[in-house]
Amino acid sequence: MTKKNQTVISEFLLLGLPIQPEHQNLFYAMFLAMYLTTVLGNFLIIVLIHLDSHLHIPMYLFLSNLSFSDLCFSSVTMPKLLQNMQSQVPSIPYAGCLAQMYFYLFFGVLESFLLVVMAHDRYVAVCFPLHYTTIMSYEVCLALLVLSWVLTTAHAMLHTLLMARLSFCADNVIPHFFCDTSTLLKLACSDTRVNRLVIFFMGGLILVIPFVLIIMSYARIVSTILKVPSAGGIQKAFSTCGSHLSVVSLFYGTIMGHLCSSTNHNTVKETVMSMMYTVVTPMLNPFIYSLRNRDMKRALGRVFSKKKISFSLKW
């Protein structure tokens, strides 16, 4: 009888953001501008690293992967949000919802792993500068990137397959602007204990272990910096880590805020913190690296100067 009364869900309705109808167009324009800024900023960093040979070093290889992750992470949710803001029926198909959840987990966790790899790179650069090229060889960098992508794929696939085994009944309204894992579990009418156990266990591993590894790397970096007698050496060491440390603080700060709002079961706060995490952080990362990083500024100048010279030669 229970199986007969269940309705197969073919799509979900996304309630979106708690915005008044009269402010809808204003927020649509703002979110569109933020998304375009995110795409252009991260795309510019990727192109710049590719074009400038001075940036073909491990630090910027990892940065290009981080920018790609940020670009894709924002693209998982923002285009659908913008579409639904202009739609009378803000829906998403069941398969599309699972796909969105998969890529959201994938690129979100990938950024965490990449930040760990970048912290290790800065640790080697500061603590073992004479052996940097040997330790951070091309093969090692490639292995670290492949490991990050493989672990991220396995993690996202695990949660997606566990979600696909659940049954959804009559309630198909998601009080969010994207298919969040915790929100979907609340709508399921089958046993979700396995899902919640895996989320608790894997979430701890994915969040805590990378954060601890980053803290350990910077503890060693600070310890080494304090042993440097010259103020110039200290300033140079901090300048190599400043951008990455700013991104780490922004990334984990927004995650902590998102987790706190989820624990308090405040839907509005959770939605706002999700917006900070999925939109604001990927948008600010290119600015942090371009404004605080001298190499990026110089590379930008070199690329534009080459373009000017080639343009003048053509004329």
Automatic annotation (TrEMBL):
One Pfam short name: 7tm_4
Instruction: Give the membrane topology, semicolon-separated if more than one.
Output: Multi-pass membrane protein
- Record GO terms (molecular function): G protein-coupled receptor activity; olfactory receptor activity
Query: Can you tell me where the transmembrane regions are?
Result: 26-48, 101-119, 140-158, 197-216, 237-259, 271-291
The keyword Protein biosynthesis appears for this protein = no
Q: Is the keyword Transmembrane assigned to this protein?
A: yes
Domain of life of the native organism? Eukaryota
Q: Where in the cell is it found?
A: Membrane
Task: Please list the residue ranges annotated as the G-protein coupled receptors family 1 profile domain.
Answer: 41-289
Cross-referenced PANTHER family: OLFACTORY RECEPTOR
Q: What is this protein called?
A: G-protein coupled receptors family 1 profile domain-containing protein
Look up and give the organism this protein is from.
Prolemur simus
